Amino acid sequence: MRYLISGYYGEGNLGDEAILAGILQEVEALDCHARFTVLSFDPEDTRRRHGVRSAPTSLRHPARLAELMRGHDLLISGGGSFLHEADFEQHGRSFLWREGKLRPVPYFLSVIFVARSLGLPVMWYAQGLGPLHTGAARTFASLAVSHSQVVTFRDRASAQLALELGAHPPLLRVVPDPAYALKAAPSERAREVLLAADLEPTRPYLAICPRPWLGRQTYQERLLGALARVVRRWGHQVLFVPFHATQDVDLCRDLSEQLAVRLADSLSPHRGATSVAAAPLLEEPAVAVALLGEADAVLAMRLHSGILAASGGSPVISLVYDPKVAAFAEQTGQTTWAVSVDELEGPEGVERLTKAMDDTLENAESRRIRLSTRVGRLKEESGETARLAVALARREI
């Protein structure tokens, strides 16, 4: 079968690439003759990372897009949470445009509508939905859901929103994010990342996956305060892991440098114990699974840093900036160790985050055991999502 995949790929976001890798892995496991084409913002990057055919993501030449679709058996939209207007206030109250470019919602829905106009079946694959502020976004999202053959959402809130909008697809399910199913690269690849960061592969480490958020600085200061306390007590190395090639690298470097200054006096034997993972070494999501999975604990602000850590077996302390991160913590049974950005910036924030990290390290083994049970079920369910895609491509549903 021939699968055309539409999503937020080729933008240097390791989380989105992990989603794509999970889809490819699980569909190919069920359809050994599967052929894939991925619509990408950087087709060369997508070809290099995933070894699949790729085509430019553009609506400037709709005839070319239509011709591409005619050569496929199924359009897969997703996964991820690109169908939202969360940046509505920040970038202007327009349904169509953001800083002179078409917004994600009208773009990705247009791809779906082109496919349906040609009679190509559509599957929403572990998609996120919302928030949607404009009437146009809500109307067109409802139409797109209703006219797609199989719609799977990665959280209950997205499915509930679709129903509230009046959508009625033939089949609707809530499923795990496809990145849960990813297999880890060999542990040697994780050691390569640690060595390149001048850390000792034989010493325990914490992995920290932050992100910039709305220009806010206070949570970053409080994060450093909690980390300094934990490292002084436990003596772990600290590895900052950028999940976005442009947005996260500078932040990780700044935080690593500031943490090193804070630790210089109290941990003189370990002055090189904080560093940043080199982004090019993490191009393969499977390497990130291995790297995060071998950490004693992972502090995750990026959603997929939490998912890949959980997939690799590491307990996660979630720094919640968005409801999807809170949903991840609940889904994996780790809500107790989730701290919101607002809470962290409050008067008891450093204490709260320090306690969550200390408790995780004190009970690491029991947490890993409980997490393994939860994630094992999510991995199995990810295979069922792929089964729906293959069945729809074969016109069996």
- Low-pLDDT segments, ≥5 res: none
Mean pLDDT across the residues is 92
- Output the structural class: alpha/beta
- CATH class annotation of the largest domain: Alpha Beta
Spatial strand sequence of the major β-sheet: 3-2-1-4-7-8-9
What is the distance, rounded to the nearest whole angstrom, between the alpha carbons of the first and last residues?
15 Å
So how many helices? 16
The domain tally reads 2
Q: What integer value in Å does the Rg equal?
A: 21 Å
Helix content: 40-55%
CATH hierarchy: architecture of the largest domain: 3-Layer(aba) Sandwich
- As for the CATH topology of the largest domain, it is Rossmann fold
Beta-strand percentage range: 15-25%
Total DSSP E strands = 15
Most strands sheet: 7 strands, parallel
Shape summary: globular
Supply the CATH superfamily name of the largest domain: Glycogen Phosphorylase B
List keywords for this structure.
about 400 residues, alpha/beta, Rossmann fold, 2 domains, six-stranded parallel β-sheet, about 15% strand
Furnish the topology, listing elements before pairings.
Elements: E1 2-6, H1 14-30, E2 35-40, H2 43-50, E3 53-56, H3 62-70, E4 74-80, H4 88-91, E5 97-98, E6 101-102, H5 104-117, E7 122-127, H6 135-146, E8 150-153, H7 156-164, E9 171-174, H8 187-196, E10 205-209, H9 218-234, E11 237-240, H10 249-263, E12 274-276, H11 285-293, E13 297-300, H12 303-312, E14 316-320, H13 323-331, E15 338-340, H14 341-344, H15 349-362, H16 364-393
Parallel strand pairs: 1-2, 1-4, 2-3, 4-7, 7-8, 8-9, 10-11, 10-13, 11-12, 13-14, 14-15
Antiparallel strand pairs: 5-6
Helix pairs in contact: 1-12, 1-16, 5-6, 8-11, 9-10, 9-15, 11-12
